[in-house]
Amino acid sequence: MTGTPIRVLLVDDQALLRAGFATILSAQSDLEVVGEAETGAQAVAQATALNPDVVCMDVQMPDMDGLEATRRIVAAPALHAAVVILTTFNREDYLLEALRAGAVGYVLKNSRPERLVEAVRCAARGDGLLAPEVTRAVIERAVTPQDRPRTSPPGLTGREAQVLSLVARGLTNDEIAGELYLGRATVKTHVSNVLAKLGVRDRVQAVVVAHEQGWT
């Protein structure tokens, strides 16, 4: 998104929190808060009207919760917004359901401000931010039995399998490039190939499939 600010929609039922998030994001020259909503229904309506690049979504809200709002935004053919979940709850059911709903980022509200900024930028790039200390452990406990034998993903090259493993660890494309001594464009191509071969829409869904199948 060279030269164009990342357009962000903030969704939270607490006005003070929205104001705080807006202050953090608006301080960045490459980020622009284009709208706010306080319920899930408003989030869907605002996303449709504004077509933002990223939606920062609370979970528990009146009218419609953030998980249902995420499903509707991700499923809308005319929308291309990436959804980052903002929550105070480190709960397996919320986070796993958010993954399945199509969210690409997860930030706890007590995280450092830099984490929110990083999550928005990653989401806009299509990388997503899967916090290793939260998301990986949640997915493993929720969808992968402890005694399931690890297998290799069928149809992937050795390099693609490596990339999938690093994606599942929560690494961004830049971090994978550094880990494997590859160019970022090459990593992006590998990630795209992995998604196509697994038949999933994004890297978060690839992580869910990988854990469900015992590949990571």
Overview of this protein structure:
This protein is an alpha/beta fold and 216 residues long. It folds into 2 domains: 133 residues, Rossmann fold, CATH 3.40.50.2300; 66 residues, Winged helix-like DNA-binding domain superfamily/Winged helix DNA-binding domain (Arc Repressor Mutant, subunit A), CATH 1.10.10.10. Helix 3 runs parallel beside helix 4, helix 4 crosses helix 6 and helix 7 packs across helix 10. The longest helix has 15 residues. The radius of gyration is 17 Å and the shape is globular. About 3% of the residues have low confidence.
Helix and strand succession? EHEHEHEHEHHHHHH
Could you tell me the strand content as a percent range? 5-15%
Structure classification: alpha/beta
Assign the CATH topology of the largest domain.
Rossmann fold
CATH architecture of the largest domain: 3-Layer(aba) Sandwich
Number of strand segments: 5
What is the mean predicted local confidence, pLDDT? 85
What's the arrangement of strands in the largest beta sheet? 2-1-3-4-5
Q: Kindly give the count of domains.
A: 2
- Briefly, what CATH class of the largest domain? Alpha Beta
- Over the alpha carbons, how many angstroms does the gyration radius reach? 17 Å
Number of helices: 10
**Major beta-sheet overview:** 5 strands, parallel
Q: What's the shape?
A: globular
Low-pLDDT runs: 142-147
